[in-house]
Amino acid sequence: MRRGSLIQLTALGLIAAAIGTAVALLIPWLPTAAGKEAQRIDFVYWFATVIAIAVFSVVAAVLAFEIWKFRAPPDDDSDGPPIHGHTTLEIVWTAIPAVLVTAISIVSAVVLAQNGHAGSNPLVVKVKAQQFAWNFTYPNGRSYGFLTLPVNRHVKLEITAVDVIHSFWVPELSQKQDAVPGHPTSIIVTPIKTGTFPVICTELCGLGHSLMRSHVEILSQADYAAWVKRGGQSSSPGLAAFQQFGCGGCHTFKPAGATGTVGPDLDKLKAEATRANRGSLTSFIHESIVEPQAYLEPGYPDAMPHTFGSQISPAQISQLVQYLAQGAQ
Ligand code: CUA
């Protein structure tokens, strides 16, 4: 090979590498890592990306060089020269990918093993998924519709599902795990950044799937201890029940800042109660929670779980009914 060609090839390779690197670095592909596991997973992404850019550069350079130098004139219909393989080349282009793929799998295996490590004293939170809400239960037995975690402590999330398969995911914590009915699963997360991040269901689970969201608030250790001490509640019991049972996943309700559209708009509860004509406003709301199939608002399917009557304690149901009746217009 001539020296000039080699320089041209290298130049093309550097251009391809520069384009690949710019695409990788200038676009923020990954969310900010808010957990140790997320940092490790990001490392695997970058490890594989660097290898991919190197391979892309070599292939793109050779391809561009050949199109440039060996383009056949429009009137040339002859065959190319016969070539009978090249053993050294074939060994090289088999060995290099084998080494690279093996390196990626070793790095991935190490990260997987580290990310499964709960340490000696993890905070255990039970995560329950159901159409279309998340519920988080703490060691003291209290449960909430949103997750609150301290920084710098291993957290073991024990995940179950009530009805169909869901999947727990916080992009900033990276770890993702299916919630499977009858088959408990778990993941470890170790927050390292305070802040509020979304909890997203990533398994198509029914009408309200896209709205099956909650949030995780990551607090400093002192703030977390204070949160646990005051029982975690910072809102009215009615609002707490509304959040705990994920009503906002499907319903719009201004007082709770909820914007779901799968089920009827709860801001219009009064008008609907009049139209339904099934007793007083509070008894209509009560019936709609414990026996939602008894009256369906026209235009809405029978999508609300029929299980809230047995899941929510009578005290909480009446708090919820009062809360909704007061906020309804
Ligand atoms: Cu639950 Cu999608």
Short note summarizing the structure:
The chain has 329 residues and is of the alpha+beta class. It is 43% helix and 17% strand. The mean pLDDT is 90.
Which keywords apply here?
329 residues; alpha+beta; 5-stranded mixed beta sheet; elongated; binds dinuclear copper ion
Give a description of the structure.
- This protein has 329 residues and is an alpha+beta fold.
- The chain contains nine helices and twelve strands.
- It has helices at 3-26, 36-69, 87-115, 221-229, 237-244, 269-276, 281-290, 308-311, 314-327; strands spanning 123-130, 133-137, 143-144, 147-150, 155-161, 166-169, 176-179, 185-189, 195-201, 213-219, 252-253, 258-259.
- The strands form three sheets. Strands 3-2-1-5-8 form a five-stranded mixed sheet. The chain has a five-stranded mixed sheet with strand order 4-10-9-6-7. It has a two-stranded antiparallel sheet with strand order 11-12.
- The radius of gyration is 28 Å and the shape is elongated.
- Bound molecules: dinuclear copper ion.
- Residues 129, 132, 166, 201, 203-205, 209, 212 line the site of dinuclear copper ion.
Which structural class is indicated by helix and strand composition? alpha+beta
Beta-strand residue percentage? 15-25%
How many extended strands?
A: 12
| Radius of gyration over C-alpha positions, nearest whole angstrom | 28 Å
Mind summarizing the main beta sheet? 5 strands, mixed
Strand order of the largest sheet: 3-2-1-5-8
Low-confidence stretches: none
Task: Let me know the average pLDDT.
Answer: 90
